[in-house]
Amino acid sequence: MPIPRVRPAPEDSSSFERSARWAGIAEGDLVDVLDDRERGATWRFVAHVTNRSTGATWVEVVGGRHGDKRSRSFRVEQLYPHRTVRSGIATAAPLNDAPRLPL
User: Fold this and answer.
1) How far apart are CA 88 and CA 72, in angstroms?
2) Sign, CA torsion 89/95/96/98
3) What is the b/e burial string over 43-82, where b = at least 16 CB atoms within 10 angstroms of the residue's CB?
4) d(CA 25, CA 64)
């Protein structure tokens, strides 16, 4: 007989602040992610999330390799403007350090 898994109680969703705009990008904009496991993947920005209780922040994206559509979360320092990460090397500053500000 399988052992039942105990799942942690979900945190109150009011403790999370989600923003569809962050660092000059909006929901649906293409971004690059600096992650060795995700080379060659294409990502679209979904939201910037802040946990008000802990102060932790992350970015939610959707996409992946060709024919694959997944939702993932990454640290803010892993997100770069589209077409600035090539062969696992970033050629520009991450969006949290150098946001794409409107002209």
Assistant:
1) 18
2) positive
3) bebbbbbbeeeeeeebbebbbbeeeeeeebebebebbbbe
4) 19
- In 3-state terms, what secondary structure has residue 91? coil
Size of the chain, expressed as the number of residues it contains: 103
pLDDT digits over 25-77, tens only?
A: 999 999 999 987 877 789 999 999 999 999 999 999 999 888 888 999 999 99
Q: Confirm whether pTM is higher than 0.85.
A: no
pLDDT over 80 at 6, yes or no: no
How far apart CA 15 and CA 52 sit, in angstroms, is: 5
Q: What is the rounded CA–CA span in Å between residue 77 and residue 15?
A: 22
